[in-house]
């Protein structure tokens, strides 16, 4: 079955960096657009970034553009999210998924606080 295992979250100070990883299984990874979402406390899930199957098209939400970088390694069935210049408002649970979305993983908590 489709499965996503996110990792790399943690507590970081404002201005710091984190790199999230998501290993996917249960579908043909290299044929699917992949995305990172986040769910802020008390809010719905929002799309942060997406990357086409070969990485030729990438999109970012306005809130993270210029600070976050999405990438993928099709040989490892893994998608990454490099997050720089983190702000307290980036605090959220981060999830990856394919597009269209399927089953959700457990996510990884990112907390930005001094």
What does this structure look like?
By secondary structure, the protein is mainly beta. It has no helices and ten strands. It has strands at 3-7, 10-12, 18-25, 33-39, 45-51, 58-60, 68-73, 78-83, 92-99, 108-112. The strands form two sheets. It has a six-stranded mixed beta sheet with strand order 2-10-9-4-5-6, with no helix packed on it. A hairpin with a 5-residue loop joins strand 4 and strand 5. The mean pLDDT is 96.
**Which strand-content bin applies to the residues?**
over 45%
Biggest beta sheet summary: 6 strands, mixed
Number of helices: 0
| Main sheet: strand order | 2-10-9-4-5-6
The whole-number mean of residue pLDDT values reads 96
Q: Would you count the extended β strands for me?
A: 10
Shape: globular
Using only C-alpha atoms, the radius of gyration works out to 13 Å
What is the straight-line distance between the termini? Answer: 40 Å
Poorly predicted regions are none
Order of helices and strands: EEEEEEEEEE
What is the percent of helical residues?
under 10%
């Amino acid at each position: 079955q489709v499965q996503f295992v996110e990792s790399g979250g943690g507590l970081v100070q404002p201005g710091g960096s984190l790199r999230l990883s998501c290993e996917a299984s249960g579908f043909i990874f290299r044929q699917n657009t992949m995305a990172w979402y986040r769910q802020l406390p008390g809010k719905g899930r929002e799309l942060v970034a997406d990357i086409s199957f070969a990485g030729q098209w990438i999109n970012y939400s306005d809130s993270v553009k210029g600070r976050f970088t999405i990438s993928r390694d099709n040989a490892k069935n893994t998608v990454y999210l490099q997050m720089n210049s983190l702000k307290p408002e980036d605090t959220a649970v981060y999830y990856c998924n394919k597009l269209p979305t399927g089953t959700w993983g457990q996510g990884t908590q990112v907390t930005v606080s001094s």
